[in-house]
Amino acid sequence: MKTDIEIARGVELTKIKRIASNVGIPVDEIENYGRYIAKVPEYLINEEKVKKSNLILVTAITATKAGIGKTTVSIGLALGLNKIGKKAIVALREPSLGPCFGMKGGAAGGGYAQVLPMENINLHFTGDFHAITSAHNMITALLDNYLYQNQSAGFGLKEILWKRVLDVNDRSLRNVVVGLGEKTDGITQETGFDITPASEIMAILCLAKDLKDLRRRIENILLGFTYDGKPFTVKDLGVAGAITVLLKEAIHPNLVQTTENTAAFVHGGPFANIAHGCNSILATKMAMTYGDYVVTEAGFGADLGAEKFFNIKCRKAGLQPKLTVIVATAQGLKMHGGISLNKIKEPNLTGLSEGLKNLDKHIENLHSFHQNVVVAFNRHDTDTEEEIALVRKYCVWAGVGFAVNDSYSKGGDGAIELAELVVRTIEEKPSLPLMLTYKDEDSTTEKIEKVAKNIYGARLVTYSSQSQKMLKIIEQLAISDYPVCIAKTQYSFSSDDKAYGVAKDFELHIKDIVINNGAEMIVAIAGDIMRMPGLPKNPQAILIDIVNGFVEGLS
To answer: pLDDT tens digits, residue range 368-393?
Structure first.
């Protein structure tokens, strides 16, 4: 089979205005970024149409190092829905350059289920990530300048919470010292870098409902505390308008197309293990304005992406998914069944059967949100019919729908079974009102513990002295009504990335708490999760090159 980039290059792309016209987007309203990419202004969102659209969430079992193929299934399902005559649009996150040049490679789908042009989407795209990086670091520069210019007047901050960001994996930047040299080179201080998808600006962009709301949220960003304990925000700097200007184009959802020339929105890109892991509310609602069926994904496993999709994104946007698709692979199930990573491609019904416990826990969690659930078995070449039959039999026993997804190798034709199952389930099993894990009025610790115990399976939650200090500040600021975003490993229900399967009765330790006052959520950091990843020994960048004028090595 051809590589992803060879398949992408072989597709004859349709001009983006035609793509827009095909789903009813006014062509005169869009702003072209070349021939095949466009920005669509957020004021075209129609809330009445949003209410009538069928929103479908795609999530997955606990991730393997190679992923489960959730983006491919999301795109494939949209292709399959269009194949059976439904007006379907997919809404996805933008890829980060960190993973693209690091371990995972690209994030535009795979095989014959991709969003295109994949080279642009995986690389600089429309510059949204660069705008977010610039906006974040502009705040940092303006803050440092404010401190420098006002130090003679005795002004200073007892604690600075705001760091810098960069959209690369670079472990050397986690902890740095700035302001070295002459006095005119700034105030010497310790700081560090997070990766751009962990930036609060990224979260704000993905949760903002319009430009006015974006500015309001930027104004509320908490930068630090003065020596008398008062919060110091972007509003105090007086630069919220300037930062909003840097994001005035980035806020518009990006319209692209699939390998079968159907519409797709790709906008925003917070990671699910360190942020809330969903594309922008604006892109989802834009897709729901013009699509009768909208497929969207949430990052990593359902304990991370889906939980945050429901408890943060749906809570904030008033969204009500009709159904959730959970993606599973034989390799992933065998890994969670205790089979070593170098043998998960080999047939093993015993290991597969044991790994179904991981799938079962995710289904249980999704049912706790009152979601109708179907399982998409993402087929690989090494899968056997016996393995597929075993998972199908389990799903019948569990009372959830089951379909094989083969969109990687067959495009929309390979997802017709899944598309038909999804439509049938939506039509025959009306969805219940979404049940969230916690209430707005719960305390921050109650929210963290309800997620940890009810979703992850923890027995106990403990807090470091630093996180306890932040909990007191949250109470003082009267922001306990914010939802919580737990940052933890994607490879386990626990904070131990080697605890495959279903971790139970473990202790979840909250090492630190970050107040995202602009995004209006509390980020609780569990275990050793890093907000700035490092590169592997053999990064994907080694394979990326331009050969005869064509980009190679993206996958």
So the answer is: 999 999 999 999 999 999 999 999 99
Residues 256 and 37: beta-carbon distance below 8 Å: yes
128-235 has which fold?
Domain 2, N(10)-formyltetrahydrofolate synthetase (3.30.1510)
Over its C-alpha atoms, the chain yields an Rg (Å, rounded) of 23
| Number of residues in the chain | 555
Phi-psi category of residue 24: left, alpha or beta, with phi > 0 → left and psi -120 to 50 → alpha: left
CB 164 within 8 A of CB 279: no
271 close to 531: Cβ distance less than 8 angstroms: no
Residue ranges covered by each domain of the chain:
4-126+250-428, 128-235, 444-526
CA distance 201 to 209: 14
Whole-number Å distance between alpha carbons of 354 and 484: 32
Cα 319–chain centre separation: 16
Q: Which amino acid is at 513?
A: I
Does residue 548 or residue 143 have the better pLDDT? 143
* pLDDT tens digit sequence for 36-49: 999 999 999 999 99
Phi and psi, residue 527, nearest 5°:
70, -145
CA dihedral over 108, 111, 114, 120, signed as positive or negative = positive
What span, in angstroms and rounded, lies between the C-alpha atoms of 33 and 35?
7
CA 464 remoteness from chain centre:
27
Whole-angstrom distance, CA of residue 401 vs CA of residue 392: 9
Confidence of residue 85 (pLDDT cuts 50, 70, 90): very high
Residue 65 has a pLDDT of 75
527 and 496 Cβ atoms separated by less than 8 Å: yes
Q: Which two three-digit tokens encode residue 392? A: 């199908």
- Residue 282, pLDDT score: 98
Closest to 348 in 3D by CA, of 360, 336, 359 = 336
* Domain covering 444-526 in this structure, CATH number: 3.10.410.10
Instruction: Identify the helix (H) or strand (E) that includes residue 9.
Output: helix 4-10
Contact between residue 268 and residue 279 where contact means Cβ atoms under 8 Å apart: yes
Q: Write the DSSP symbol of residue 348.
A: -
The per-type count for the chain, helices as H runs and strands as E runs, is 21, 25
Single-letter code of the amino acid located at 461 = V
Is CATH 3.40.50.1100 what the domain over 4-126+250-428 is classified as, yes or no?
no
Phi, psi of 424 (to 5 degrees): -60, -40
Closest CA to 143 of 33, 242, 51, 284: 242
Taking 80 as the threshold, does the pLDDT of residue 105 lie above it?
Answer: no
**Strand 189-191, strand 109-110: pairing:** unpaired
| 111-112-117-121 Cα dihedral, nearest 10 degrees | -50
| Mean pLDDT within 284-294 | 98
